[in-house]
């Protein structure tokens, strides 16, 4: 096992860094992904395990830009996913390309959207 100069394993150091990052994000009051029902996403195993998601989309859609349908499951050990950035400037919750909703839900959308921000609401 590799050990840092401070005597921590690299895994322990990664967890410490993530905890500090989470504290910073919480301070900034970024919205959480309270629910995701997209079961074929690699980050979804009993909830979204991505550290943060981005929302994009065209023509009035609000796709989850972090959706990835690989055979492997991944992400963090815990479910604390945040909304990192959102390109849907036409959403009532969007201010300066940041989401101001208290939390968002992700699920299947209309058309070709596999993963869609269900909290999206056109201005
Ligand atoms: S609620 Fe609106 S601003 Fe927030 S992530 Fe969804 S589309 Fe973007």
TrEMBL record:
It comes from the Bacteria. Pfam families: DUF1540. Residues 36-67, 86-114 form the DUF1540 domain. This is DUF1540 domain-containing protein.
């Amino acid at each position: 096992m590799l050990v840092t100069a401070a005597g921590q394993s690299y895994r322990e150091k990664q967890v410490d860094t993530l905890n500090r990052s989470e504290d910073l994000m919480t301070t900034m009051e970024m919205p959480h992904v309270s629910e995701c029902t997209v079961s074929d996403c690699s980050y979804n195993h009993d909830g979204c395990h991505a550290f943060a998601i981005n929302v994009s989309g065209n023509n009035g859609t609000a796709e989850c830009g972090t959706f990835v349908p690989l055979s492997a499951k991944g992400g963090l050990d815990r479910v604390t996913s945040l909304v990192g950035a959102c390109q849907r400037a036409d959403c009532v919750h969007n201010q300066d390309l940041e989401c101001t909703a208290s939390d968002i839900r992700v699920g299947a959308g209309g058309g070709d959207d596999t993963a869609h921000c269900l909290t999206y609401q056109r201005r």
